[in-house]
Every structure is written in C-alpha cells, then in structure tokens.
Amino acid sequence: MAAPGLRGSSVALVLAATVLGSFYLRPAVSQQQGQGEEAAGEEEEAQRQRYNFRFVRHARDAPLVSHYNYIVVGGGTAGCPLAATLSERSRVLLLERGGYPYGNRNVSSEYHFADALADTSPRSPAQRFVSEDGVVNARARVLGGGSCLNAGFYTRASSEYVRAAGWDARLVNASYRWVERELVFRPDVPRWQGALREGLLQAGVTPDNGYTVDHVPGTKIGGTIFDSAGRRHTAADFLRGANPRRLTVFLHATVSQVLFRRREGSASPVAYGVVFTDPMGVQHRVYLRGVGRSEVILAAGTLGSPQLLMLSGVGPRAHLEKHGVRAVVDRPMVGQGVADNPMNSVFVPSPVPVALSLVQVVGVTRFGSFIEGVSGSQFGIPLHSRRRAHSFGMFSPMTGQLGTLPPRERTAEAMRRAAEVMRGLDRRAFRGGFILEKILGPLSTGHVELRSTDPHANPAVTFNYFRDPRDVERCVRGIQTIERVVRSRAFSRFTYANATAMDVAFDRAALAKFLNLLPRHPRDTRPLQQYCRDTVMTIWHYHGGCHVGPVVDPDYRVIGVAGLRVVDSSTFKYSPGTNPQATVMMLGRYMGLKIQEEGWRPGPRN
C-alpha cells in the first residue's frame, strides 16, 4: 500500500522525480542482492530476445510515470489472453509480479505446484501459503500464472455452467477455439492411464466418451497443454500473437494500489491508475489515458484480486479500517465466498514399473465427483538432478501434501520426519500412481482477508473444507468409486494381488504412515466421512472472492466504482468443469473481445 503522503502527490511532483532520475529514489541494497537482481535480469533479457518478446521488460526499467488505455494487473491464465486481445486495438500495460517463464528450468514439463512449494528461492514461480484450515497451498508467481505449473489437463466448462454464467454461448465457443488453436494438444495415453480409463468404465463411470474437450458425464481423455515432445505450453504463449507496438509487459512489478478520484457530476469514484513497485522498492505510477473509455482490469487471481481491492479501499469498511485503509467504497462481499475444491487421493503401488503421466483421463460421475490420476517415477515427477533427488513430486510430505495426517497436524516437524523415513525406503515402494477425486462445486465456502497492508504478503485465507455435509457425501462416493477402479480387472496389472505380496516387495507399513494406500489397512476403521476430512488436500483450483452479483456486475465491472473490472477465477462461484484452466483462459479472450466492442461503441460506458 502506498504511503499516505504519496496518495495525494501531484503529477508535477512525480514528474520532478522523473527528471531527478530513479537512481536517487532507490533504497539501499546489499551488493549481493544487487548482483543477484542484475544476474536474474540479464538471464531474462537473453530469453526475451530469444523468444522475440521485445515488449517484455523488467519493472526496474519502467518509467516512473506512464499512460495507457488499459492497465491489466496480473499476467496469469486470464491476464495474458486478455492483454493480448486488447492490444489488437489499444495501448495496453500488463503488470506481472513474477518472472519470465521461457528458459526457466523451474517452468517445464517436469515442474509442478508441488515443486514450487519445496522451492523457497526468490525466483520460485509460486508462493507458498497455508490456509487457516491448515492445508498447504501455492499461488503462482510467473508470467503465464498457474498454466506454468499445473498438471496440464484441458477441458471446457459444461453448457449448463455457461448458461448459468450468463455468457454468450457463441462467443464462448469462439473464445475456447482461439485458446485451443494456440496451445491444446491430444495426449498420447500410456498404459497406466489407459488402465485407469478402462477401470473407470468397469466401475460404472459411463459412457466412454473417447477424446473430447467437452464436459460430459462418463469417462474421457481430455486435452493437454503439453505437446508431443513433452514441452509445456502456457498462457504466456498468447502474448506471441499480441500487437508488439501496443503492448508493454513489466515483470517483477507488484501493484500496491488502484488509484481513485471523484469525477465531476458522478457520485462514484473513478479508477484512474495504479501504483506498483519494482524489486528495488522504487514506486512507479501508471495513469489511464482518457479515463472515460479506459480501464484498470484486475486479473490477479482468487487471492490477488480481492486483496488488491481491499488494499485500494474497496471492501468491508470495518475490516479495512482495522488495517488503517481508508474505505473508498464499502463492499462487504469482497473476499467472501472463496472456495477450494477439496482433493482426496490414494496411492496405488504397482508391481511393475509405471511410465510418467500427469492428468490425461477423467471420470465425470453423475453424483458430483471427478476421478483423475497421475503416475510414474517418484509420484509423478521424474528425477534428473541431485537437487531434486528426493522431492517425491506432486504428493510429497515436504510440500505439505501429508494426507495421512489431519490438516492441523501437518507441522513442519511432521513433514521433516516423513521425508526422512521415505528417503530410506526401497525405490519399489514409489512405483505406481495416485488416483484422486475432486468434488463438484464445492458448496463449502470461506473468505480472504488482509493479514497486513504489505502487497507482497499473502492474505489470510479460510476455505472451510467439507463444512457442507453434501460435499462430504460426494467425497465418500468418489472414494468408493476409486476403490472399485483399483479392484477392477482392467487395473489388475498395476496392483499387487494382496497385501502380503506388497509387504514382500517393500515396507508397506512404513509407506502407509505417509501415504493413503489402497487397499486400506484392516485397522483403518474410520468411516469414509471422517477419512475425507482427515485426508483432504488441495488440487489448486481455488476460486471466488469477487463474485458476479455482490462484487462485480455481469460485465465484470466492480460495483460502486467506475473504470475498474475483475476478470479472473475470483469471479467464479463454482469451479468450471473438472479442471478450470480452459475456462479461465477463455474468459480472458471472451472479455477482451467484449471490452473491445464496448470501447469502440459511441456513448458513455459508465
């Protein structure tokens, strides 16, 4: 948040600072920190030249004052397609708090949110956070957002979801197709995924829908953002189609405040710019050109967009005043209705080696549970370097995915002990794959609140997993379906004949302390309802906090102010489809086209 004295600073004062030069405004930094920033900047500059992204710059190179038609905050899964689309007709600035994905060894076909959770370096493409429920989670911090880190599965929202959202179905389909032409591929399905598919069908998740990106009941193979060579494609790829003369992107730019003023003849505050800081602590101001037809658009995600609204004075008045933030508009529902689809997974040890695969097959049940799987070396992440030799991949206890303990017992010490024991186990213990279930919705919701006024810090998040009993019952039926899949004839090649055979191969009892195995141990007599609550983890599909209706209108304008929209997953009441990234990308393109049309339409917009 900007210092109180800077909020009312005149443009003349800022321009004077520009003349003096940013050198005098930079806070003192250590020689080591400065060298580290310089080296990182040089590496990103080389990659920028290589990929011909000449409009992408480091935030430290930004002018202290600049002007654009549109300012998009957040270069993630929605922000990249949105900015690329708007640049077709207008001057656009895209501000991203993270770094460059291309050439980054931390953004590859082998990298996942779980690796990011274990990576505490300043250049990690994700930022770890722990919800107030005790579940460890991650927030993307890289150009391209979560598409740089997820399991790559691509599937559209259902037609019912589109109708409920009030979207134009024809434009939605055109926007999906635009996304798919750029970065969606049909996967090669390895044997383990094929066995999962057949097992789902034998377990009653029918019909067989073959390959499709549509959301339909039954079992299907979905699209992927990994190409045939295994290379990950991300939302940042959309920027290759942007107009390079009209788009500017600043990386490592942390926005601290949306600026508002009162427009003559209007009772509503008007957004007219933003303040962001570079890694050296220098403040930069960006103003809208021709405020009546220009906009600030937040695409900072489920945590970032509500947080930035509140830091800027748009939110629950009492909560803002508690943190010393002056309320511009009292909007009590900002930050409310946040949800994270709970995931419960089981590890199925295999007597034979299993090829690496991320999510390719999904079972869409009729009772509100989605079944997916990942397989391969060390829980889905191949090992090629000593640094990652014991990461244990997607469901590692070291990343907080310690599902055998209830969330509040997943302490740092518990994770350390688990990792230490697992390092001593026979490698055969880690052959196999995870079958997981995610519930529809969910119906249980929580909230995002400010923890401080530091824009670099994560806000406080509460998801209230399984508070609604209907979510619990969906989980129970999902686990029962997984049990039928594991017992199916189709999946028998990848399961041990019995517990005795498993015990001969490796120390099953030791592994079961840290992973939920199927079949469950005979002494595990917990009802499945309690099992769901105790073993809950995240699937990184959190959403909400800026819902359509109480926070934004159907055109995603923030209610009570002018010149400000939110276009990202924070506007979703429920997670779309089985995996949301397709719809988040689509929404960026869809709203870019809608805003373009409005911008060229005569007459006032607010």
UniProtKB/TrEMBL annotation:
Q: Which residues form the signal peptide?
A: 1-21
- Report whether Flavoprotein shows up as a keyword of the record: yes
Q: Name any cofactors this protein relies on.
A: FAD
Pfam family, any one: GMC_oxred_C
For molecular function, the Gene Ontology terms on record are: flavin adenine dinucleotide binding; oxidoreductase activity, acting on CH-OH group of donors
The chain positions of domain Glucose-methanol-choline oxidoreductase N-terminal read: 301-315
- Say if the entry is tagged with keyword Signal: yes
Q: Where does FAD bind?
A: 142, 255, 540-541, 580-581
The cross-references to InterPro entries, in alphabetical order and at most eight, read: FAD/NAD-bd_sf (IPR036188), GMC_Oxidoreductase-Related (IPR051871), GMC_OxRdtase (IPR012132), GMC_OxRdtase_N (IPR000172), GMC_OxRtase_C (IPR007867)
Instruction: Name the cystine pairs.
Output: 475-532
Q: Which UniProt keywords apply?
A: Disulfide bond, FAD, Flavoprotein, Signal
Query: What's this protein's family per the entry?
Result: Belongs to the GMC oxidoreductase family.
Record's protein name: Glucose-methanol-choline oxidoreductase N-terminal domain-containing protein
